[in-house]
Specification:
Elements: H1 15-23, H2 28-35, H3 39-47, H4 54-64, H5 68-71, H6 101-109, E1 114-118, H7 123-128, H8 132-141, E2 145-151, E3 168-173, E4 179-181
Parallel strand pairs: 1-2
Antiparallel strand pairs: 2-3, 3-4
Helix pairs in contact: 2-3
Amino acid sequence: MPATLTSSHCTTGNERLRGAMVAANVTIEGLADHLGVDLKSVDRWLSTGRTPHARNAEAAAKFLGADAYHLWPKLGERQRSAPTAQDEVVACYPMRSTVPYGLWRSTLAGATSVIDLAAANLLFLADAVWDLPVLLADKVATGVRVRIVTPEDPAEPVTTSSPPCSRCRVCDWPRTRACGPM
């Protein structure tokens, strides 16, 4: 006998999901089969108010013609592990001109151990951070290591070869105040 949705089936749980299933004329078995999940899972969603995995919630909502966040309001509150800082890409900009000017200064001002700058032309940074020399000097005074790599010929790109190419000049503070070839 198929499990149907009647008012006596369950009086607590997810009434929004129950209403959407009744409106779409979908049984518990029908939803479970469509999603490829166990019958007991769908029953738990209905009877205990459990929140399914996001992929199942989205697929069920689409099948029922409803919004997943309406059916399961706690869907957006699921706990996730916090990514570590080195594993997280916060933002990606296709060109340096699309980076907000304030972000350049706040990133440099927030550095606590190392600042590495490698560019063919750092004039844009001097425009973005009007007090760049003072900011870098203050960072060096507080123990931040600052390295600036520029090519001898500004028309050539700075490469990521290791060690830097023989045509690159490296300035490394606070260890040395001199700039020159590697």
